């Protein structure tokens, strides 16, 4: 069975679970506007679906996915990256979410491309969408190359993945409506990092200044 047929089988399973006689969740949300309390900005990587990783239900998460889970910095009059800004504005000002999570992950192809130099300005052309996009995380790459120029490439990539999430958290606060909600205590920002190999989820502890396990290890 090919991948497309498997997807159709998955839809059949969805209908059985959510549209059957006991489909209370679906009936609850079908006739009402969505009202999620949490927004997740994650990577497009097929291994890190936030709804699956958090066992979230229908209506729980407002999700934006893109390469390398990037939040571009706000710039007055710049509309290059409208998609993320529009979703963010809708989530904060209309849905009034209480939490925004930026969730990065290990083995990120976008960050690896950045660390390989694909995002270098002198190598990118105007129609190179990937290079232009991942360049938004250049501050993370620059910090890694400055602080640890001689460590193995794989380690540089992982540190850049972790730093990239924090860059996006900082960029969130450049949006006036995010800053206002944050300063008024209506919005919390969270930096998560999923380790695909182990299944561990890390969360950045702002008081400690480091990433810590979100929950205790199994066993």
TrEMBL record:
Entries under SUPFAM superfamilies matching the protein: beta-carbonic anhydrase, cab
Name of the protein this chain belongs to: Carbonic anhydrase
Top-level EC class as recorded in UniProt: lyase
Pfam family, any one: Pro_CA
SMART domains in alphabetical order: Pro_CA
InterPro entries xrefs: Carbonic_anhydrase, Carbonic_anhydrase_CS, Carbonic_anhydrase_sf
Family named by the database record: Belongs to the beta-class carbonic anhydrase family.
UniProt-recorded Gene Ontology molecular function terms: carbonate dehydratase activity; zinc ion binding
EC numbers on record: 4.2.1.1
Protein's GO biological process: carbon utilization
Phylogenetic placement of the source organism: Bacteria, Pseudomonadati, Pseudomonadota, Alphaproteobacteria, Kordiimonadales
